[in-house]
Amino acid sequence: MISGNPLRSLGAALALLLWAGGAAAAPLTLDMLLAGFADVAAADARFTETLTLAVLETPLTSSGSLRYRRPDYLKKQVETPAPSMFEIAGDVVTVETERGRQTLSLRTQPVIRAFAAAYRATLAGDRAALEAHYRIDLDGTVERWTLRLQPIDDSLRRRIRSIELTGSGSRIHGIETMETSGDRSLMTIAPDAR
Amino acid sequence: MPARRTSAVVAAWLAIVLASAWILRGSAVDHDLTQFMPTGATPHQRLAVELLREGPASRLILIGLRGGSAAELARLSGEFAQGLRASGLFSQVGNGAFDMGGDNALLFRYRYLLDPTPAHEQFTAPALRRALTERLRDLGSPLALFDRNTLASDPTAAMHAVLRAWRPPQQPRVSEGVWFSADGRTALLSAMTRASGFDPQAQAAAVTALQRAFAAARPAAQAVLETSGAPVFANTARAAIRADMQLLSTAGSVLLAALLLLVYRSPRLVVLSALPLATALLVGGAATAMLFGSLHGIALVFGMTLLGVAIDYPLHLFSHLHGSAGAAQTMQRLWPTLRLGVITTCIGYVAFARRDFAGLAQLGVFTASGLLAAALVTRWLLPPLIGATSAAADRRTRLPRLPALPPGPARLLVAGALLATAGLFLMQPPAWETDLNALSPIPDAARQVDRRLRGELGAADVSHLIVVGAANADRALERSEHIARRLQDAVAAGLLTGFDLAARYLPSPAAQRQRQQHLPDAATVQRALAVALQGLPFKAHGLDPFLRDLAASRQLPPLTVASVQGTPIAARIEPLLYRNADGWKAIITLSGVTDARAFRVWWEQAAERDAQYLDLKETSASLLSGFRESALERLLFGILALWLVLSLGLRSALQASRVLLPILVAVALSAALLGALGERLSLFHLIALLLTAGIGIDYSLFFHRPETSRTDLDRNHSAVLVCAVSTLVVFGILALSPLPVLRSIGLTVTLGVSLCFLLALAAARLNAPPAEAGQR
């Protein structure tokens, strides 16, 4: 999933490998993980999302593509079952469905801003921004880590119990969002094959 | 005067001054500009004035944030709006980002009664299926996370429809999630103060809160806060007048003191010259505060202006001090003329006092009581205080000599003035100011900001209103709903672009009950839902909360004005639904009325009972013109009264005419010249002309005073000259003010007093040639 400056990516991967190989017993630290992410300038991937809701008999499944550009651009393009687009560029959130387009500013929406930080601050390797909104637990090794984020703000905590990112190296394989209601969503991410 | 009597006079004066000061200390100064409007003759006009004073127009604040990137301005807009809402001083703060301004649990509970979507469009099987399918799709959006918890109880997103209905009828461009001007450089906000224009202190607090919230929102160094609207104007006017008056009156006083020192060469006399005016201000203020309960800021400022004539009283006395004659004796000799001058001036000022025009009534009381106090101080207090210095004063005084005016030039002057007046009036009669805003001392730059922000915010024009009267709040809401339905036709016809009313936020109980009746019963909706859910992944009983809430909605007691107290609904409807002496009024604000006449035609055809269309701008203009007509009428009666009093005082109708005519010509010529200078005559000019007439009649009386000797005559003329120069100094400075109000007063008085002086002198010269001056 990693593209952009190949030398840089290679450097990051090498660094992680060296850590892994040279000191197999040494645990992965948050700074190491975030430094790896910080080196990623751009990423494109495919996703499949499964929503498990109490009201629904069967989970809802959707799929599409994801795009990241350093430092603060994120886009989620849903292709099936119905097309829709969700994008954060800087502070501007754009939502586009077949019913129209809507923009709002993250600066006026602190809850959404805090929510978005889970992805944006992680990908940008911005530890301070991440810690401003979440309590962070990191488990595992470089090859297989789990980053567990629990919201600090009340307004976000009322909705979300935790966001769990799993991956290896500077690649995210999955994001699981647990809601306080018991509903949850699981997004699995694979490198863009196209 | 015996010492005992002197101390009695001083003691009485002290007592009055102290009592006045005590009364003034405890009284409030209010600044409501509409007090300086007539309350209106017809119920229609009275309602318009009431709305100007207390309605949405008196509460709306327009805000622009400039300087910085769009993203930074959007952040600032968000934090600033939050600060304003947190202050609790605003019933509504809009910046484009949706915010209910409080807890929405009540709205959620009542969503099926508040949602304007008709029930038959919501609860049929196809409608439910459409809504549910849409909702399922929306779940893919990360934002759906934030209202997923209501999926089971509100699967059709009725709450969204309620919130959508809360958005302003017209919005500026939204970018970065907040309102922006068309050029994208100014973030826009609007706020309604909780306090009406009737509570200026509370509004001033709200205006201060704007500054505080701005500072607290961590603005970038280049960020600028622009504010406008009636509450801001009232505040600015107050501050501007205060600051400018302070500066100008200080400058004026210093120059005046220097001038008097130069003439009388006695610091003591200069100090004494201030006594009558100071007493006049205290007594006038106290009398007004006692009679009216409060003192209007404008009455205070104008009153102080009009009382300026009181500085002349001691000057006449000082100028006439000479030789062996004591101050008391001199005063006695001058008193008949001075007394007549005071009485005529009072008549002039009181002629404009009207009971239905609170501001002018205050002004009348303020000036009349003040002038009487000044006259009494000059008559009884000054002579004993001057006492022994009298002779010394005479020796030191350097009165300017007024060169003799030969009859030829005098005749020329009078004829020229008459011709000029007639010519100017025929060529271009002075125009009247018809815009109430022109009365406010707001600088042009501020008005430009107002026009710009109003234009950008679009919906913010609150001068076109429909007011619906009813016996109770429920009925007022119901009637306004009915009119709103008819207004849709007018919107379709392009007569207006939108409207807002309290019933949009709180439908009448009747409308809520009607919606309740249209809500399907449990069996019907269950059947429809069963059909709608076929093939959708919902659990069999997954939507039971929805069915429960719908059933409960059929039993809810409708929301009323009383039951929404303290909720966001109450804040929204506050400026649009209120109670007055006649009952309840619901206000429908109209936006985008470009052709008021065409709208009026439509409205009259609509023929709605108990509802009136008000064009506040037009009404205030007609109020002003009505005031003007009655002012002119009063002017005529005032002149007649003056002439009668002068005839009695001078014991000669002819002499009275001789005194009065030059002043009338001078005032008329001043008005004509102002018109020629491009000034549009307003209340301020009228007041300034009134002052001019009061001062002028004094001059004319003194010029026409038969003096026993040539020296006395010279002294007399010199005394008037000193008075005139001192007035010109003070008002000449006022004419330099950048504030339109102060400048027009200064200009008018400077012009008028010069003309009064010249014409009164010329007339006196023609009426009593120097050869006969010695005769009595």
Any descriptors?
heterodimer, A: 194 residues, alpha+beta, 5 helices, 11 strands, globular, B: 776 residues, 5-stranded antiparallel beta sheet, 4-stranded antiparallel beta sheet, 29 helices, 62% helix, 9% strand, elongated, disordered C terminus
Helix count, DSSP H or I runs of 4 or more residues of chain A: 5
For the residues shown, what is the average pLDDT of chain B?
A: 84
Which range best describes the helical content of chain B: under 10%, 10-25%, 25-40%, 40-55%, 55-70% or over 70%? 55-70%
Span of the ends, CA to CA of chain B: 28 Å
Integer-rounded radius of gyration of chain B: 34 Å
| Mean pLDDT over the full residue set of chain A | 83
**Overall form of chain A:** globular
What is this entry, summarized?
The complex is a heterodimer of chains A (194) and B (776). Chain A has helices at 6-22, 30-38, 110-124, 127-133, 154-157, and strands at 42-52, 60-69, 73-80, 84-89, 92-97, 100-105, 134-140, 145-151, 160-168, 171-179, 184-191. Chain A has 194 residues and is an alpha+beta fold.
